[in-house]
Amino acid sequence: MDDLKRQPTAGIFGTAGLILGGLALVLAVFHFFGGPFAPQDAVGVTLGEIAAEAGKAALRDLVGLGQPTPVPSPWDIDRILWTGTAVTGAFAVVLAVIALVRHEPRRIVIGGAALGAAAITFQFAAVIVMTLLAILVIGIILDSLGLG
């Protein structure tokens, strides 16, 4: 009769999801506070390039020329970390769902799903906050120039 009782064990899928979720969250926080790691142009250079490209595009439209084909941006370490973190977090959530279906211990399942989802959410929340700050800075600059 003792052989029929199920012994509570930590499931492999739940544990893997928990580890991957923790790794994804650590990567997200590390990249947010430690990055960017790839060389970055100065903000003035970037804004100047954007303005020059907008002017060239308007001139091409005015003359009737077609727009050039867009060049894909190369993969740098920041893009690899960003994508790797999101994929690792997604794997953690998928493994947590598999563990839930296999009736593995709920604490491990919930932990893996929460950590994976937190890593993905942290990345998107950081992008939203940085975008809002950039819009605020642009608004302040335009206002100081008398254009706002």
Strand content: under 5%
Describe the global form.
elongated
**What about the largest sheet?**
none
User: Total number of β-strand segments?
Assistant: 0
Q: Helix and strand string, N-terminal first?
A: HHHH
Provide a count of the helices. 4
User: Structural class of the secondary elements?
Assistant: mainly alpha
Please compute the radius of gyration using only Cα atoms. Answer: 23 Å
Helical content band? over 70%
In whole angstroms, how far apart are the ends?
79 Å
- Provide mean pLDDT, rounded: 86
Query: Which blocks of ≥5 consecutive residues have pLDDT under 50?
Result: none
Quaternary assembly: single chain
Describe this structure in words.
Keywords: Membrane, Transmembrane, Transmembrane helix. The chain crosses the membrane at residues 12-33, 80-101, 113-142. The protein has 148 residues and is an all-alpha fold. It has a domain at 11-41 and 75-144. The chain is 73% helix and 0% strand. It contains 4 helices and no strands. The radius of gyration is 23 Å and the shape is elongated.
